[in-house]
Amino acid sequence: MTIYITKAKLTHSEYFLYKLKQINQSYWSINESQSKSIEEFDRESINITVALNWVIHNFEKDDHISRICLEFIENGRTVFEIRFDPSYRLDIYEKSISAAKLLSDKKLEGHLIGYVGDVYYQLGLYEKATDLFKKALVIAQLEKDDIQVASRLIQLASTCNLQGQYKQALEYDRQALVVSDTLNSPNISAAIYNNLSSVYIQLGQYSTSLHYCEKSLILFDEGRDFRSKCYALRSMGDLYKEMGNYQDALNQFHQALRISREIKDKRIESGTLTSIGITLIELNQISEAREILEQAYQIEQSLGSNKREENNILGNLGRIHRILGEYEQALAITRKGLNICKQIGDRQNEGSHLGILGSIYILQNKPIEATEVIDEALKIAKEVGNPHNIATQWINLGNVCLMTKSYNKAVDSFREAVKIAEGVQHKRDLAKAYEGLGLSLLFLLFSQEGISYLNKAKNIYHALKDTEKEFVCQEHINVWSLSLDNIPKTDLAQ
Q1: Of 217, 337, 336, 230, whose CA–CA distance to 276 is shortest?
Q2: What confidence tens digit (pLDDT) does each residue in 330-351 have?
Q3: Residue 197's closest CA among 152, 166, 221?
């Protein structure tokens, strides 16, 4: 009887592996709709999951079952990522590694190690992800599996970028480009270009970022990778937002949102809604931003497990509370986000959240508390090596010093921020640092040099189309210029 049951379950698994292969082929076919492929998977998901679970728990009995197990993962990975919870994917990928070892299939073992790393990456557990990507890369190089070599280099570059390790990210991307030249894969080339675009946004090199982003969008269309196209559209939106072109940014985000809904990818939909919400905050459309972010949070809660994305949404809801003067609510949400960062080992965002706490304490006129958390944020930013976060914390410290009228220390802090922001040409950081330095010099020395820095800040805000900050700088210039004009030059010389 047991033999008959096993044969029946094997037949069931083979049939639904065949169905999964059809779904995967349809998903990547030029003539098919990706949303229809996902709908077909949804119709068969119970049977596919039952078959998958059976082979996962029985692969040790037979090499044939082990092979079926591995084929399920290889053919289902794309739809699994869209439909399955990360914790479940971790479980099935890790068990499948044992099946690959049982068959002595080193190449597939490397694939699976990379897939596990990708789940940890999505969860924001970057150290674990990096270790696994490096292991998978070594196997791919030994197996001369160039597609996997390029894929792992791309993943390592993405991980470095998120941790603020920009030089290392660029190096991995350049290595990936060398490998991709030997392949005929538009999707791989596009992924590299999208990575490069993201890094150059962080470095403030916007024209270079735009160049790579446009190249990636063309190639993602050619390769029919619409999920990745959503990420590329969001990268372009991030670029426009950083440049102050908020309407252009929203246009890109709404394109990504439309595609994410067409292909029924709730995870991408959630992330895109978050991007729209952040942009609406910049446009001071606070009630609309809150509504959009709450939609994103509800989707994320229904999907579960992606603490990094949940934390991103919480951080921006905290910004809304801060803007509205609801400081206690802002502190509560920011502390919740800080705890998530510590839980998943996300040091970069841990530092960012500490800096946000500091900025809230500044608004509450609590310089001691602000200094304590900002000092810790600066320490973490230096440890991670993210120039944007380092500059941000120096600016925060400068603002604390302005509040306490410690003008010498304020000048020193803002000069540190200027040095870093000029080094990487991060325009917004540079504008904030120039503005703070200009005010500090005026309070300290009542000097024309302060006016000069305020003018530099105003010009950058103008280039970024940030009319509100440009207006504030102009007001400072007008007031201080009038004061300087009323002081005899002999007094200024002293």
Answers
A1: 230
A2: 999 999 889 888 877 677 788 8
A3: 166
